[in-house]
Amino acid sequence: MARRLPPTLDAVDPQIRDLAALGAAVRNARAHARLRIDDAAAFGGVSADLLSRLENGKPVTTDRLLKVLEAMGLVMLVVSRDEAWNFRATAARDPATQDPV
Questions:
Q1: Which DSSP letter does residue 95 get?
Q2: Using the 8-state DSSP alphabet, how is residue 1 labeled?
Q3: Are 37 and 52 in contact (CB under 8 A)?
Q4: What are the φ/ψ torsions at residue 99 (nearest 5 degrees)?
Q5: What is the distance between the alpha carbons of residues 40 and 44, in angstroms, rounded to a whole number?
Q6: Do residues 68 and 54 make contact, with C-beta atoms less than 8 angstroms apart?
Q7: pLDDT, tens digit, for every residue of 3-38?
């Protein structure tokens, strides 16, 4: 059976609160890149099973997570709650400041 691409979402909340939200963000980035799961996994140097687990909100090791994020052109920022709200407020006011997916 041919693998299909997931639907793309225009807006995904960048503030990750749980593994399900992290998986949704990764899946959306893959969808925007128009990559099938096996192709994205190979590009990132991980297994399709690992990428599937991540996209479905299951835990993966941090080193593998970072490999996937790098391959998908995503970054993880660790900031205070106040700084996170400032980033969100700035992005909401000026869409030009957002990085394209």
A1: G
A2: -
A3: yes
A4: -75, 140
A5: 6
A6: yes
A7: 677 777 666 677 888 999 999 999 999 999 999 999
Domains (ranges, CATH) in the chain?
19-95 (1.10.260.40)
C-alpha span between 24 and 9 (Å, rounded): 10
3-state SS, 30-53, equals: HHHCCCCHHHHHHHHCCCHHHHHH
Closest CA to 68 of 41, 34, 99, 28: 41
pTM of the entire predicted model? 0.77
Write the pLDDT tens digit of every residue in 32-87.
999 999 999 999 999 999 999 999 999 999 999 999 999 999 999 888 988 888 87
Query: Cα–Cα distance between 100 and 64 in angstroms, integer?
Result: 23
